[in-house]
Amino acid sequence: MPSYRQGPSQQQVSYQAPLLQNNSNQVQAQNQGVAPKGNFKQERNFFNFTPIPMTYTELLPRLLQSGLVALCPPKPLQPPYPKIYDENAKCDYHGGAPGHSTEKCMALKHKVQALIDTDG
Questions:
Q1: Per-residue pLDDT tens digits for 9-18
Q2: Does the model's pTM come out above 0.70?
Q3: What gap in Å lies between CA 111 and CA 49, rounded to an integer?
Q4: CA dist., res. 78 & res. 94, Å (int)
Q5: Local structure of 14: helix, strand or coil
Q6: Domain extent at residue 115
Q7: Considering the domain boundaries, does residue 38 fall inside one?
Q8: Does the first or last residue of the chain, that is N or C, have fewer Cβ atoms within 10 Å of its Cβ?
Q9: Does some domain include residue 47?
């Protein structure tokens, strides 16, 4: 049977969980609607878009004709589809691709908002 010698200077080591510090970059990023770097659970950001006097479906042809936007075909989506995916809805901004309607197209809404913001 092996024998174990106890050294003269053994120290008792205890584990202390790291303290969570308030990272000002993380707080600042959250306040700006930007996800902080790291392995954090992604939270949905909600945006307030400037109201427009027509539907996005009506606005899109005008933006295309004036050259302010171009159609943006999406990458093919593979199952499992997101919860918001609607196979019966088509988006004109995404070249008629299924998944969402032109009215619910967040990419188009962000593009229009960027145009409004730069027009100032």
A1: 444 444 344 4
A2: no
A3: 11
A4: 16
A5: coil
A6: 84-120
A7: no
A8: N
A9: no
